[in-house]
Amino acid sequence: MNITVAGTGYVGLVTGVCFAEAGYTVTCFDTDTEKINTLSAGISTIYEPGLEEMLVQNMDAKRLRFTVSPAEAYSGADFIFIAVGTPEREDGSANLDFVESVAREIAEHARGKTVVAVKSTVPVGTNRKLAGFFNPRSGISIVSNPEFLREGSGIADTFQAERIVIGTDDKAAGDKLAGIYRRFGVPILRTGLKSAEMIKYASNAFLAAKISLVNEIANFCEVTGADIEEVALGMGMDSRIGSQFLRAGIGYGGSCFPKDTKALVKLGEEWGCDFSILKSVIEVNSRQKQKLVNAAIGIAGSFKGKRAAVLGLSFKPFTDDIREAPALEVIRQLLDEGADISVYDPAAMGKMREIYGDQLYYAETPEEAVKGADFAFVLTEWPEITAFPLEKYRLFMRQPVLLDGRNCYSAEAAEKAGLTYVSIGRKAVLAEAVAAATK
Ligand SMILES: NC(=O)c1ccc[n+]([C@@H]2O[C@H](COP(=O)([O-])OP(=O)(O)OC[C@H]3O[C@@H](n4cnc5c(N)ncnc54)[C@H](O)[C@@H]3O)[C@@H](O)[C@H]2O)c1
Questions:
Q1: For position 437, what pLDDT does the model report?
Q2: How many whole angstroms separate alpha carbon 78 and alpha carbon 116?
Q3: 232 and which of 16, 227, 246, 308 could share a cystine (Cβ 3.0–4.6 Å)?
Q4: Domains along the chain?
C-alpha cells in the first residue's frame, strides 16, 4: 500500500511519519527543496516531541522517503493525503491556492485508482470543487478527512485520535480510506463530504468560543473580585461544560483558531449567514492579547528606557510554531512603546529571530532573559518557564513586575516573593492597571 503525503508541515510530516510507523510505505512530497533536503538527512523541520526519532527509524526501515518530484510522489500512490496550508487571505477567507495546485498536479501524475484524502482545513464545498480537477474516468476519488491533531502532541493525537472523520459521497473510496485507518484502532465517523468539512470549522469555532468566553468571565472576575481558577473549577465539574479549555489566559493563537474562525465568518457572509457569536469571539481574543501590555503601561506609565523580558514565544508549549502567537502581539506593542526586549523560549527562538532579527535580545535561559528587566511577561506555559522560581524574578529583575498571561504561578506565592504580580482573572490589580492605562 503506497501512501503519499503532500505538504510536510506540522500536519503532513506527523501524518507521513505515523503512517510509516504503522507499517505503510510512505512518500512525503513538498515544494520546499530545503525542507525536503533537511528531512532526507533525517532531521525534523518542526519541533514535535518524539517525531525525529520516529522519522529516522522509519527512514532506516525504508518505509519513509521524501521528494520534491510530483511525478515520483503521485504516480504510484494508492492514497494521497493533501496536507498543505490554507492560510488566511487579507479578507479573512481561506487561501486555497496551495490545495488547488496539488489537485492539478495529482490530476497530471496520478495513475490508476487513487483515493485523495484532504486533510487541509477547507471551506464547505471545496472538496467537491477539487473533484472537478480530476477526469471522471481517471479513477481518482476524493474524500474529506479533516485533521484534528494538536501541535505538541501530534503523534499521540494520531495514534489515539478521538475520532477520524471520513466524509465522502463515494462509499467505496470512504471504505478504502477507513481500511487504512483500521490499524490505528480509533473511532471512525463516516459523513457526507460537506458535513466533514463543516465538522472541522465548527469544532475550532466551538473551542475558540470556549476560550473567549472564559477570558471574558475572567475579565469580569477581576472587576467583581471573583477568582477565575475557582470559577473554572466549579464550571468544569458540570459534565455538560467539561473541564478542558477553561483556562483563562492571554488569548488563543496558532495556525488554526485565528484563521479558521475568520474563514468561517467569511464563509457565512458568502452564504448570507451572520456569525455574530464568532465575530465577538475574534474581537474578545484580539483585545485579550493586548491586556498585559496595557496593564504594564498602567503600572509604569511609559516603557521608554525600560526593559521587558518575554518568556514563552510559541503559541503553546511543546511546539516551535509562533503563527498568531500572543507573543507576536505583545512584542509588537512593546517595540511600539520603545521598550528594550529580551526573549526566551525553549524551541521557538529561531522562528522569532526570522521575524525580528536583532531588534530583540535572545537569551539562553529564563534567568538571562529577566536579568535587569523591569517587566517580565510569561506568555507560554513551557515547563522550563513555569518551573522558574518566583524568587529569581525578584533577585534578577530591576523592578520585579511579573505579568503572567497563563496563570502559571499562585498569586499569593508571587506576592509573598515580593513581586508586583498581574495575572488573568484573579486579582483586581489588573483591572485597576488597565483602567489607569486607558484613562
Ligand atoms: N498545524 C496544525 O496544528 C493543524 C491542525 C489541524 C489542521 N491543520 C490544517 O492542516 C493544513 C496544513 O497545516 P500545517 O500547519 O501543517 O501547514 P504548514 O504551513 O506547516 O505546512 C504546509 C506545507 O505545505 C507545503 N506546500 C505548499 N504548497 C505545496 C504543494 N503544491 N505541494 C506540496 N507541498 C506544498 C509547504 O511548503 C509547507 O511545508 C492547514 O489547512 C491547517 O489549517 C493544521
A1: 53
A2: 9
A3: 246
A4: 2-191 (3.40.50.720), 279-437 (3.40.50.720)
